[in-house]
TrEMBL record:
This is Xaa-Pro aminopeptidase. It catalyses: Release of any N-terminal amino acid, including proline, that is linked to proline, even from a dipeptide or tripeptide. Its EC number is 3.4.11.9. Catalyzes the removal of a penultimate prolyl residue from the N-termini of peptides. One of its GO terms (molecular function) is metalloaminopeptidase activity.
Length: 483
């Protein structure tokens, strides 16, 4: 599917029925004589504490995967033997109509969602009792913590509150054409917003202005929800991976890191770019950017079905070591540096993660207790199947808090040239300085690039269209400055 086809794909219904069948197929791997009912509850409306306004609504992702329904206070049942799904929506509350208008009707919901039947939530109990009575061996599969009324499950002879979650999380790893189209759309809108930030950076005075630019472009194109809190970090703030303040002045800062992505109908994008606020990279900034760019480019080229993600992540460290050796920041033998894990001082996090209904999507099997520092923060382990979507987000950091303990450790210090490193604390040295942004005091800085990659049987497809080539970013930024 070429990029421009995603709008045509999205004119169809979300394929909830196909997802239900996929989950059942996975359940059968551990439950051979599978029979019974899948039961799920959507997120409930909840008022804020000491306030009569509702909390911001975010649908349970497992519920959405099985229904395509983004309404609050809904239920869902899928009868495994008959292959029939029922969506339960709230009945009309006459007292609420004056405030919120008429809710979706049963007929409208049936036309909108890929289910066989729509009823009101007042029918949940009788419907489940009827389904349970059709077979004495019926089991109800639900999720622990997601059942508000345990009595609703009592008609069933058995209940299983564990297997369904595992099955849905396994199913969500491989995306179908519709899901990929949703991620394409999220990337398309986010790329427009990223370029708007790049253009506005020439005249902005504070991170919050650029935060507002990103949000405005996304909302204007129909994406009101962000996949995560946008990160607009200038200078040393970029060394905080999940920086959320977005309110610091830009004067004295050379580069801006923007890590931001919109959702499209609950499916996420996750995009990072680093660019010069002055419209032109300094020599040191460009040197580091080129290393990170090569890390990402080389790792993307290794992607195809059934490749071990651990191996690609390890390759990113090899490229980082080679680049930092060439710049003189590191010294010694590349294999010895890798064996000592010294590169973790500059690239301390994982290469990427699964992407889908969540930014850090399910199924990655991370091991935060791994004694190997190179893999401890890797959110994705093992092989990657065709149809999965992964992020590839290498970075090179110059953060005193991270690096100085390595400089004090003789095992690592022998591999780091402190004199050369001094030129990179502020990505400074001989550099291009914007007259409106004089150099700040030495501080941590970061170069990072992140794209969203669809894994195919023979390779990959990059779903991210945001500008990232250095010359192109400089051209856009320079054009904005001269406009």
């Amino acid at each position: 599917m070429v990029a421009q086809d995603f709008e045509a794909v999205l004119r169809a219904k979300y394929p909830a029925k196909a997802h239900a069948r996929r989950v059942v197929d996975i359940l059968r791997r551990t439950v051979p004589d599978l029979a019974g009912v899948i039961y799920l509850e959507g997120r409930q409306t909840k008022l804020q504490e000491d306030n009569d306004s509702p909390e911001h609504f975010r649908q349970r992702r497992h519920f959405y995967y099985m229904t395509g329904c983004n309404l609050a206070d809904c239920r869902y049942a899928y009868d495994i033997r008959s292959d029939r799904s029922t969506l339960f929506i709230p009945p009309v509350d006459a007292d609420d109509v004056i405030w919120s208008g008429l809710p979706l009707s049963v007929d409208e919901a049936l036309a909108r969602y890929d289910v066989d039947e729509v009823k009101h939530t007042t029918d949940v109990g009788p419907t489940l009792a009827h389904l349970a009575g059709r077979a004495t061996d019926a089991t109800v599969f639900a999720m622990a913590g997601h059942v508000s009324d345990a009595d609703a499950l009592s008609p069933f002879g058995r209940s299983d509150l564990d297997a369904l979650r595992r099955a849905v999380e396994t199913a969500r790893v491989v995306k179908d054409e519709f899901e990929v189209a949703l991620i394409r759309k999220a990337n398309h809108v986010s790329a427009l917003a990223h370029e708007a930030v790049l253009r506005r950076a020439a005249t902005a005075s504070n991170e919050r202005e650029l935060d507002a630019v990103f949000l405005e472009r996304c909302v204007a194109h129909g994406a009101k929800e962000m996949a995560y809190h946008p990160i607009l970090a200038a200078g040393k703030a970029a060394a905080t991976l999940h920086y959320v303040a977005n309110d610091a002045p830009l004067d004295g800062k050379q580069n801006l890191l923007i890590d931001a992505g919109a959702e499209w109908k609950n499916y996420a994008s996750d995009i990072t770019r680093t660019f010069p606020l002055c419209g032109k990279f300094s020599k040191e900034s460009r040197d580091i950017y080129d290393v990170v760019h090569k890390m990402q480019r080389d790792c993307i080229e290794l992607i195809k079905a059934d490749v071990r993600w651990d191996d690609i992540h390890l390759h990113a460290h090899r490229v980082a070591i080679a680049g930092l050796l060439a710049l003189g920041v590191l010294r010694g033998d590349a294999d010895e540096i890798l064996a000592a894990r010294t590169s973790a001082a500059f690239f301390p996090h994982g290469l990427g993660h699964y992407l889908g209904l969540d930014t850090h999507d399910v199924g990655g099997n991370p091991n935060p207790k791994d004694e190997n520092v190179l893999f401890r923060y890797l959110r994705l382990r093992g092989t990657i199947p065709a149809g999965s979507v992964v992020t590839v987000e290498p970075g090179i950091y110059f953060c005193r808090f991270i690096i100085e303990p390595y400089l004090e450790d003789p095992v690592h210090a022998k591999f780091i040239d402190a004199a050369v490193l001094d030129r990179y604390w502020d990505v400074g040295g001989v550099r291009y300085v914007c007259p409106l942004r004089p150099p700040s005091s030495p501080a941590a800085d970061l170069d990072s690039i992140e794209d969203n990659i669809l894994v195919t049987e023979t390779g990959y497809e990059n779903l991210t269209t945001a500008v990232k080539e250095p010359a192109e970013m400089e051209a856009v930024a320079s054009a904005a400055r001269s406009a």
